[in-house]
Amino acid sequence: MKIEHMKKTLSFWVCLLFFLLALTSCGFRNSQEGITVRLSGWQSNPNEKQLLEQVFNQFEIQHPNIKVKHETINDQYMDVIKTRLIGDAAPDVFYLDAFEAPLLMQYGVLEPLNSYINPEFNLNDFEPTLLKAFQLEDRIYGLPKDFSTLALFYNKKAFQSAGIDQAPKTWNELREASQKLTLDQNRDGRKEQYGFGIAPELSRQYFMMTAFGGRLIDRQENAAFFTSESLKGLQLIIEQYRKDQSSAQPSDVGASTGSEMFGQGKAAMVIEGTWAIPYLQETFPQLDFATTEVPTVNGEKGTMAYTVAYVMNKKTKHKEAAWKLIAYLTNQEGMKAWAKEGLALPARKSVLEELGYVNNSLYVPFVKGADYATIWQAGETLPTILTHFNNQFISALIGEQSLRQAMKKAQRSANKEIQAAR
Asked: Between vectors from CA 281 to CA 279 and to CA 285, what angle results, nearest 5°?
């Protein structure tokens, strides 16, 4: 009996030992395999994903216990992210445009990054206006990865043919140059070349309104752009299109973007972002063009700035790992690794300088514009305002109604929708 009891006891302890060894082995394997951080974003260029994958590979070499799962969402990106946030299925880290940031910051779905940021990270290296776009009540919810301002592109050959020896510095000079650059009609009734190509969208015209002291929203975030100040800036665009007939929108000449109509020679000048530079160089290699700062309006320097940040999902289970990824992507090493394409400018001043953008004549106007640009952001009601503004502004542009009537109608309908949502 004693021997039998001893066998059972020994068998029990052997089984227990194997069980503990199995647990230890499993735990060891899990620690070796590490964790996976999911990152979601969009793709603006085929090269962007490839460059990011290279950056992720370098990150994983430096952090062997962290794997990055990269997801590209190009269709209805923010709708997908918002739906996943509601369903607790959002990625650990994701892109966030400054345009959408106020809503997500206000509703507490983002992790504040202040406690993760140490002095060595050097926040002062970021362009201040870009960093501010992702702050609320001194809390930092995102770190800008890149940005673009707007600058004036001009066709050097067209300028030479029109006898224009320098780029316009004021809006009056731009209008005068635009008239000289507008050529006679083709057989189909269209002009052979317009002096200026316009984008009749709020995201491109906001700075025209601020030049005269206009604004988009009031303190309660209601639409507030129907003022004499805002109308003065917008009227310049309307007059050039309808009265001077020296400007056109892309659809007028069978183009889909301002960059395309410029590259095709349908417009001698356009105001576009940095993304247009590699596009023009690759698609229209024979085009001889230059860039300069956007001409002053009402004596004021102005342009727009668009920026995107990496943000952390507040409900992520891997906060430390998510922060390590964000920190790597936005430090000098990570930012420099993928910002060479020139589609957008790196958000750190040191990287801008190291990659030579501050000395590249095509990019200098964009870099300078960061100091005085209007960030494309205006509270959580901006998406609603944008839709109503664009619909009515285009109506005024093509002469269906006056600018005053259009903006009054746009503001009233926007505020009606905003109030209904509250």
From this structure: 130
Instruction: Give kind and range of the element (H or E) at residue 32.
Output: helix 2-33
pLDDT attached to residue 117: 96
Residue range(s) defining the domain that contains residue 73: 36-148+305-375
Q: Has this prediction a pTM greater than 0.90?
A: no
Span of 45-59, 246-260, 358-372, 388-402 with lowest mean pLDDT: 45-59
Residue type, 287: L
Give the separation between CA 175 and CA 246, rounded to whole angstroms: 8
**pLDDT score, position 133:** 96
Whether residues 244 and 219 share a domain: the answer is: yes
Would you say the C-alpha torsion 224, 225, 230, 231 has a positive or negative sign?
Answer: negative
Out of 337, 356, 375, a domain closes at: 375
Classify residue 7: in a domain, yes or no. Answer: no
Across 24-49, average pLDDT: 69
**One domain, residues 212 and 338:** no
The answer to whether 111 touches 314, Cβ cutoff 8 Å, is yes
Alpha carbon 48 to its chain centroid, in Å, reads 14
Three-state DSSP at 319 gives: helix
DSSP 155-169: EHHHHHHTT--S---
359 alpha-carbon distance from chain centroid: 23
Q: CA-CA distance, 20 to 14, in Å (whole number)? A: 10
Residue 178: which CATH number? 3.40.190.10
Domain total in the chain:
2
Backbone angles phi, psi at 58, to 5 degrees: -65, -40
Q: What are phi and psi of 72, to 5 degrees?
A: -100, 125
The arithmetic mean of pLDDT across residues 294-315, rounded, is 97
pLDDT at position 337, please? 82
Is 10 contained in some domain?
no
Q: How far apart are CA 196 and CA 153, in angstroms?
A: 10
pLDDT (0 to 100) of residue 105: 96
Contacts 24+ apart (CB under 8 A), 113-117: 113/140, 113/141, 113/142, 113/143, 113/312, 113/323, 113/326, 114/138, 114/139, 114/140, 116/323, 116/327
What pLDDT, in 10s, does the model give residues 140-191? 999 999 999 999 999 999 999 999 999 999 999 999 999 999 997 665 667 8
